[in-house]
Write a structure and sequence with these properties.
Length: about 200
């Protein structure tokens, strides 16, 4: 339990999934927050199948299970790097989620919300990101070889992302359900920092 919410995590470590529709129905979840993804800045041929499996197949399975179990709300995430055109195959798989989300929004009673994120940072982040690199270098007192540092960085702190999740789950879906006169649509929101400092300023 956290912040008044009862939270259950589903961790797919072995690549196998339980009977999700039955599990969701039995647990009577109010919402599904889909955080799983496979992120690759660049990819190899051998990584195409697991990338699609993680970002498209799993998402579709979760959407289908949520629809069958009459889950009230489904929240998922994408990246700003799919706009205006995908900057990587990872971003392309995220962009390919859009018609899947639209389909389930139109044909089910599940409210679907998408949050588009810039880069994130925060405590205990194991990724090889520039902010983590700078912190490690500062703590170690070692020089940091970098570019001139004129590029702007749009960074979101993980606490702000958590706050956005909580707010998104409180929002009411506009439009009607699948039996109404107006089709439902995906409620999609972009999360961006108020400021974008340069690498040199950081």
């Amino acid at each position: 339990s956290a912040g008044g919410y009862n939270i259950t995590t589903l961790d797919r470590k072995n690549g196998n999934l339980i009977d999700l529709p039955s599990y969701f129905a039995a647990e009577k979840f109010d919402a599904i927050v889909h955080l799983a993804t496979m992120f690759l800045k660049s990819h190899e041929y051998s990584q195409i199948t697991p990338l699609i499996d993680s970002n498209l197949t799993l998402t579709t399975q979760l959407l289908e299970a949520s629809a069958k179990a009459q889950i009230k709300h489904f929240l998922t995430f994408s990246t700003y790097y799919e706009f205006p055109t995908p900057a990587s195959l990872y971003a392309a798989t995220k962009a390919a989620m859009t018609p899947l989300l639209d389909y389930y929004a139109r044909t089910s009673n599940t409210q679907i919300t998408g949050l588009d994120l810039y880069d994130t940072y925060g405590p205990n982040d194991p990724r090889d990101k520039v902010v983590n690199f700078l912190i490690k270098s500062a703590l170690a007192g070692t020089p940091t070889p970098l570019s001139p540092g004129e590029q702007q960085l749009k960074l979101l702190h993980i606490q702000d992302v958590c706050s956005a999740i909580e707010q998104a789950l409180k929002l009411k879906q506009s439009g009607q359900n699948s039996a109404g006169s107006e089709p439902k649509t995906v409620a999609r929101y972009g999360l961006a920092p108020l400021e974008a400092p340069t690498l040199k300023e950081i």
